[in-house]
């Protein structure tokens, strides 16, 4: 995605563009609200950056808005919080139409048990047990502001909001919660895994298909579009 957007913006700017994004998304992960910045001396109206760039982008990627920001703004380091949503199809047969847009678990899941387990993750913690081995973050400490779990029919959605996330952190948390929801582990197990700081004690990483970067929050001083 980044290469495609850089190339498209470069067509409008008339020079090569290097994007700095608010967060990384692995292959198969979706972004409804990725935010990125780049440096340019090209003067273009906002409509040119949006509609012009979209003319060069594949159908699966679209620029939603563009605005000029001060030089001290940074899409990643100026962000106050990020929200990810994981959509899980909880049904006996794998989904067809949502094959690339939702995770899947075949057995019934206990949402109340997963909610109870998730409570122990809220707050500032060392999330090493839910961190990818190849994660390059300088510290495993993150502040998880909230985690909401809701069912609508056969769909279960996990919504996590934090100051920042480690690589695979959301998918690893969802994988562990599914273990609890399926009765493979008690609700208290999540807190034990967190305290262990040992990735090997947690559940396998869940599939990327159901993960969406939902929102990136910034201070009002930057005057970014909603």
Count of DSSP H/I helices: 5
The end-to-end span amounts to 22 Å
Q: Tell me the number of strands.
A: 9
Largest sheet: 7 strands, mixed
Describe this structure in words.
- The protein is an alpha+beta fold and 226 residues long.
- It has five helices and nine strands.
- The strands form two sheets. Strands 2, 4, 5, 6, 7, 8 and 9 form a seven-stranded mixed beta sheet that branches. A two-stranded antiparallel sheet has the order 1-3.
- Helix 3 (111-119) packs across helix 4.
- The longest helix has 13 residues, at 169-181.
- The chain is globular and about 60 Å long.
- The two termini are 22 Å apart.
What order do the helices and strands come in, and which of them pair?
Elements: H1 2-13, E1 20-21, E2 30-31, E3 36-37, H2 46-54, E4 81-90, E5 103-105, H3 111-119, E6 123-126, E7 141-152, E8 155-162, H4 169-181, H5 189-196, E9 211-217
Parallel strand pairs: 2-9, 4-5
Antiparallel strand pairs: 1-3, 4-8, 4-9, 6-7, 7-8
Helix pairs in contact: 1-2, 3-4
